[in-house]
Amino acid sequence: MAATAASSLQIAIARPCILSTKRISGVCSTNFGGITRKLPWNRLASSCHVSSIQHFCRNFTSTTQKLQKVVTKAKSEGDESKPASGLPIDLKGKRAFIAGIADDNGYGWAIAKSLAAAGAEILVGTWVPALNIFETSLRRGKFDESRVLPDGSLMEITKVYPLDAVFDSLEDVPEDIKANKRYAGSSKWTVSEVAESVKEDFGSIDILVHSLANGPEVTKPLLETSRNGYLAAISASSYSYVSLLKHFLPIMNPGGSSISLTYIASERIIPGYGGGMSSAKAALESDTRVLAFEAGRKKKIRVNTISAGPLRSRAAKAIGFIDMMIDYSIANAPLQKELSADEVGNTAAFLASPLASAITGAVIYVDNGLNAMGVGIDSPIFKDLNIPKSVE
Asked: What is the mean pLDDT of residues 44-54?
């Protein structure tokens, strides 16, 4: 990320089939919102930097099953005269800061929408070089269609802050970044400065979302990753979350919630997911548990992370292999359907709500159950097994 900021994208690739006669030649998967100053603009991926490596040499069985969107059932101002049904997610009066949104496509945006649908006020942190494009698109109504909430209203973003989560304070910023024209015109964009700005503008927040990361050498196998590349992945993808929570914790109201995004490569081998990114995601999940203890004892803040499945985002479609990843997930996951960004957003809204008041330090899988599979059942090895199929 030389900053990292983008909305959330996650490409999930299941583990290779045991005894499969097909060979995986190089699969890359990422779940991060990353842009790095060493990478060209076209490497930007919404809350994720996605790297295309070699061709994924497998045959996938396509499915005609359609995406099933899950809508957050939230209270709205117009519903107050009606009795609430079930257990509605109600975040009215809460304020959320979401780090890592640079467009209207991906998990970060979906999380913002679900929190807004539940009544929360939305603040956004956007990677500095992407700030002007994002704000211009928002102002000109290019995101209006994707801003529509379940009740027909449009999601409102109260304020957008420039943010580069790689740097904790201005003293940490190298001179070449300070002089970079893409940072010209922006100020107070380090983590500590953004936290201070939010405090000055609003006093406090209730919800903190980390939807960003990056690995500059993600295309390299771990054995070929440099020390600098490895440490950069850790810095942008895991320590950035520690820094955000460290600096925002003093202005978080007791009983609040903090959420990040992770990926199954943290605990399973995903060939092609290199550059230290698997290590960074493992660190993020470990940090989630430790931060849950420390933030919980200090301010009664709950800390959880969501491990999400594949999403057909704009960045992933541009790279060209996301359809194969989705087909693989549909063929092998317990639930044979395409994952919706809303399903991740709704999970975040639940975790941020009082309904999840006893959940902290957890990794919540939102991937149609793909994480539970030990093998890929679309392998020819299993062709004679009577494997149940979903009824359309």
From this structure: 36
Q: Tell me how crowded residue 245 is: count the other CB atoms within 10 A of its CB.
A: 22
Active site residues: 238, 281
3-state helix, strand, coil in the chain (%, to 5): 35, 15, 50
From residue 37, give the alpha-carbon distance in Å to each of 44, 50, 203, 218: 11, 15, 32, 14
Distance CA 78, CA 178 (A): 47
Measure the CA–CA gap between 187 and 162, rounded to whole angstroms.
Answer: 8
**How do residues 142-189 score in pLDDT, each as one tens digit?**
999 999 999 999 999 999 999 999 999 999 999 999 999 999 889 999
DSSP state string for 50-104: ----S----------PPP------B--GGGTTSPP-S--B--TT-EEEEE---SS
Q: How many CA atoms lie within 13 A of 101 on its CB side?
A: 27
Residue 17: CB partners within 8 Å, gap ≥ 6?
A: 375, 376, 377, 378, 379, 381, 382
Q: Each residue of 248-277: b (16+ CB within 10 Å) or e?
A: bbebbeeebbbbbbbbbbbeeebbbbbbbb
Check residue 81 and give its pLDDT. Answer: 55
> In angstroms, rounded to a whole number, what is the distance separating the alpha carbons of residues 299 and 252?
8
Pairing type for strands 121-127 and 157-163 reads parallel
Cα–Cα distance between 211 and 240 in angstroms, integer? 10
Contact between 12 and 327 under an 8 Å Cβ cutoff? The reply is no
- 113 phi and psi, to 5 degrees? -65, -45
Residue 185 is predicted with a pLDDT of: 87
Closest C-alpha to 49, from 214, 259, 293: 214
Please list, in sequence order, all residues whose beta carbon lies within 8 angstroms of the beta carbon of residue 52, skipping any fewer than 6 positions away.
Answer: 28, 319, 320, 321
d(CA 356, CA 364) in angstroms, rounded, equals: 12
Q: Which of 170-179, 211-220, 349-358 has the lowest mean pLDDT?
A: 211-220
Cβ count within 10 A of residue 350: 18
CA 379 to chain CA centroid, Å, is 30
**DSSP assignment letter at 42:** G
